[in-house]
Amino acid sequence: MKDYLVIYEQADDGGWGAHSPDVEGVFAVGGTRDEAETRMAEALAAHLAYLRESGRPVPEPHTHAGHVAA
Fold first, then answer.
1. Using an 8 Å Cβ cutoff, are 63 and 6 in contact?
2. Cα(32)–Cα(56) distance, rounded to whole angstroms?
3. Greatest CA span in the chain, whole angstroms?
4. Are residues 26 and 47 in contact, defined by beta-carbon separation less than 8 angstroms?
5. What phi, psi does 50 have (nearest 5°)?
6. 3/1: higher pLDDT
7. Structural contact between residues 34 and 10, judged by C-beta atoms closer than 8 angstroms
8. CB distance 6 to 20 below 8 Å
9. 29, 17 in Cβ contact below 8 A?
């Protein structure tokens, strides 16, 4: 099992969105961050399974995140 970076962003209306810079085209939304996290985990797992089943390459995780105090 590989760990993919997922970015969570809160929208102006309070909802949440999620995407992974390592896996193009996979995203999720939810009314709460927990909901977005759950949906993203499901979407990412389903997409990677599809890639494997169809013989397509599965992208390797290659991005990292950190914080900088300013």
1. no
2. 33
3. 46
4. yes
5. -60, -45
6. 3
7. no
8. yes
9. yes
Q: Residues with Cβ < 8 Å from 17, sequence gap 6 or more?
A: 8, 9, 11, 27, 28, 29, 36
58 has pLDDT over 90: yes
Q: Which of 3, 30, 31, 28 is nearest to 18 (CA)?
A: 28
pLDDT at 19 over 90: yes
Per-residue pLDDT, averaged over 11-18, amounts to 97
- Whole-prediction pTM value? 0.89
Residue 3, SS3?
Answer: coil
Amino acid at residue number 18: A
